Amino acid sequence: MRALINKKLKLSTNNAFYTFLALSLILSVTISLLFVGHRANTAIYDLQSKSLEIESKLTTSYLTLFLETRTQILNDLARQPILSNAIMGSDTSKALLQDYLFQYKIMGSTEKITIINVLKEVVFSNDPLLNELSIIEQPWINSLLEEHTEKAVILNKPTNTNLFTIAVPIKYNNFTEGVLMVQFNTPMTQLLPTDFDRESHGLTLAGPWVYYSNLNQDDEYVSINQNLIGNTDITLNYYITANLIAAKTTRFIIDIAISIIVSMALSSLFLFVFGRHLLLNPFKLLESSREAIKQSEARYELAVKGSNDGIWDWDIVTNEVYFSPRISVLLGYDENDKNALPHCADALYKLLHPDDITKHKKQIANHLISNIPFNYDYRLKTKSGAYRYFTVKGMALRNEHNKAIRMAGSVTDITEQKRSQKALKQAKEQNDLLAQAIESCNVGISIADASVQGFPLVFLNSEFEKITGYSKEEMLEINCSLLQGPNTDKNAIDIITNAIKTLKTQRIEILNYK
Predict the structure, then answer these.
(1) Quick check: 377 and 414 in contact, CB under 8 A?
(2) How far apart are CA 250 and CA 44, in angstroms?
(3) How far are the Cα atoms of 82, 84, 252, 257, 437 from residue 432, in angstroms, in the given order?
(4) Mean pLDDT throughout 90-103?
(5) What integer pLDDT is reported at residue 273 of this predicted model?
(6) Looking at the predicted structure, is the pLDDT value of residue 200 above 80?
(7) What are residue 413's DSSP bridge partners?
(8) Ramachandran quadrant class, 403 (left: phi over 0; alpha: psi -120 to 50; beta: rest)
(9) Predicted local distance difference test score (pLDDT) of residue 285
(10) Residue 112 CB contacts under 8 Å (≥ 6 apart), including other chains
(11) How many CB atoms lie within 10 A of CB 495?
């Protein structure tokens, strides 16, 4: 019996090799999964977490650039004299305002613009669906008019789309006399990264007049990151479904396990074919994190592709700069011209106006070292050799040691705005000369506000004071009927009143008293 058992257990040379090969495969796979599996799980989990955190910061940065760029443009527009004159009740200024704003384009698009004065009356609007009563009842209107805030960012839903509205005050002699508000036609969904997976990712926006959420009530979420969007008091909270990272990690581990089994099987087959003396080849390590970084950069490029602004992305560590094709177009080059802007930091310095180079270097250093906001105007040379004005904005991404490792931003052509500002300045100077001429003429001139009940006087020149004997302090904010007396022709008064109601020019003689 014993001899029979020994005979059964005794293996031939070939059988021993096959057994060794099989046991080596099983043992190699088992050990690999035990030792590599845990480390791979930890590494993949950290990699996925960091990738999601970068996505959150890039989403926040893009929303910040979108809102702050447009807020700055509106602040510049609100400082134009034509707006402040219009809200103060000048019919001529209102007519000019209609011509100026009716087809006004902000960053290449015609948006819905509304202007109201301190009395909450609509001075201008190109929005046919504007509900004046609804606008007046909004709390942010009072907050701006009462100077409790310098801007208001509102997320409303006029149709089935979430749209941002930005409102800024219009000031006259440093006092808020009206509000400029613009509803931008870019839907909230277009401001998210192009690869944003709404089934597993979510975000919420919360601010004084903003609330947005695309979270599914039936799902459980984990907050990845929470950031303020610039200086808007709006908080962005970035979420993923609770099992997303675990599921991705599990799938990746399964893929690794399958890869190990297949590679070991192929190695065993190689040993089987080429000889029993060959050793099993070790399996390869996990794919390096470099590929993951490239994929993250590709996602970022897709997120900013299609922006109306030129987009740049500077890798501070390698000193490589990505310039979007839109920047080449803004500078007069073809968007497919790869030689127009080499992808290096020195490319921008070669285009800067010589007088702006020192300022640019100083402002970059201030942002990278002291985190001072980077938002400045520069002159860049175009393909034709002429210089145009551009607003260059940017924001640095910092590591855990608060050191800037990456910086991204936008480039906006503001040449036409600069020209408009110059033209408006010249128009203001002419208006000032006209005002001086009125003040110095030898005819008594008074102006009443026909939009206010009682038609109070709002302007008197010096000759009016000499003729009537009344001072400006006595007459301003008072109806000119104070000058009328018992012998004043009532029919003349009726004619003047009717001319005001019908908006007709009237010339008439009337008896007034000093």
Answers:
(1) yes
(2) 9
(3) 13, 14, 73, 81, 9
(4) 80
(5) 58
(6) no
(7) 390
(8) beta
(9) 40
(10) 125, 126, 127, 130, 182, 183, 185
(11) 13
CB atoms within 10 A of CB 395: 24
User: In 3-state terms, what secondary structure has residue 65?
Assistant: helix
| Torsion angle, alpha carbons of 293, 294, 297, 299, to 10 | -100
pLDDT of residue 197: 65
3-state SS record for 28-49: HHHHHHHHHHHHHHHHHHHHHH
The DSSP output letter for 188 is G
Tell me the two tokens of residue 72.
């700055």
Residue 370 vs residue 291, higher pLDDT? 370
Q: Which residue has the tokens 């609330």?
A: 211
Report the alpha-carbon distance of residue 113 to residue 184 in Å, rounded: 9
- 367 Cβ partners below 8 Å, 6+ apart? 373, 374, 394, 396, 404, 407
Using one digit for the tens of pLDDT, what is the confidence trace for 212-223?
888 888 888 888
pLDDT at 169 over 90: yes
What was the pLDDT predicted at 282?
A: 38
* Average pLDDT across the chain, whole number: 81
Of the pLDDT bands very low, low, confident and very high (cuts 50, 70, 90), residue 270 is low
Q: Phi first, then psi: what are they for 463, rounded to 5°?
A: -65, -35
> Is residue 25 scored above 90 in pLDDT?
no
- Give the angle subtended at the CA of 218 by the CAs of 193 and 208, to the nearest 5°: 60
Return the sign of the alpha-carbon dihedral for residues 249, 253, 254, 259: positive
Mean predicted confidence (pLDDT) in 83-109:
83
How many of the other CB atoms lie within 10 Å of CB of 136?
A: 14
Token pair for 59? 């989403």
Question: pLDDT tier at 38 (50, 70, 90 boundaries)?
Answer: low
Report DSSP letters for 286-337, one per residue: PPPHHHHHHHHHHHHHHHHTT-SSEEEEEETTTTEEEE-HHHHHHTTS-TT-
The pTM assigned to this predicted structure is 0.43
How many CB atoms sit inside 10 A of residue 165's CB? Answer: 21
Instruction: Look up tokens 């979108």; give the residue.
Output: 66
pLDDT band at 286 (very low <50, low <70, confident <90, very high): very low
Q: Name the amino acid, one letter, at 36.
A: V
